[in-house]
Amino acid sequence: MSNRDGSCTMIVSDTSGDMRYRTSILAYYPYALEFLLIYSVNDRSLFDDVKRFINDIKNCNTKRPLIMLAGNKCDLKDQREVSYEGAKNVANEFDIFYIEVSAKTGFNTECIFLLLCQAILKDLNSRVK
């Protein structure tokens, strides 16, 4: 992924968030520098797990990783179970970035990876200085 500040290569691991794989998921936490937590805006139960994931990340990782929260399926306006404001409030509570995306329409999908790339480059530059 490239932007005006440089380029970065990202390895994306989809852990699915399924609690049956909690042990495997927790194995990633101490080593990752960035986390992108994605939930479906039309599934309240997935959103209800977000706080637990954020707390687990913060408790298992001493590097203060960047955490971004994304609400997917924002194109399903009539099926929405999680409001933008509710998700934004959770993001503010944990001081993390929030964005809504739609994998179906492509809305904000490239944007979120550009934002991650910028954050990675900014973080790496600050560690070098």
Automatic annotation (TrEMBL):
InterPro entries per record: P-loop_NTPase (IPR027417), Small_GTPase (IPR001806)
Keywords for this protein: Nucleotide-binding
Record Gene3D superfamilies: P-loop containing nucleotide triphosphate hydrolases
Matches recorded under PROSITE patterns: RAB, RAS
Signal peptide: none
Coiled coil: none
GO MF entries: GTP binding; GTPase activity
Domain of life: Eukaryota
Protein name per its UniProtKB record: Uncharacterized protein
Lineage of the organism: Eukaryota, Sar, Alveolata, Ciliophora, Postciliodesmatophora
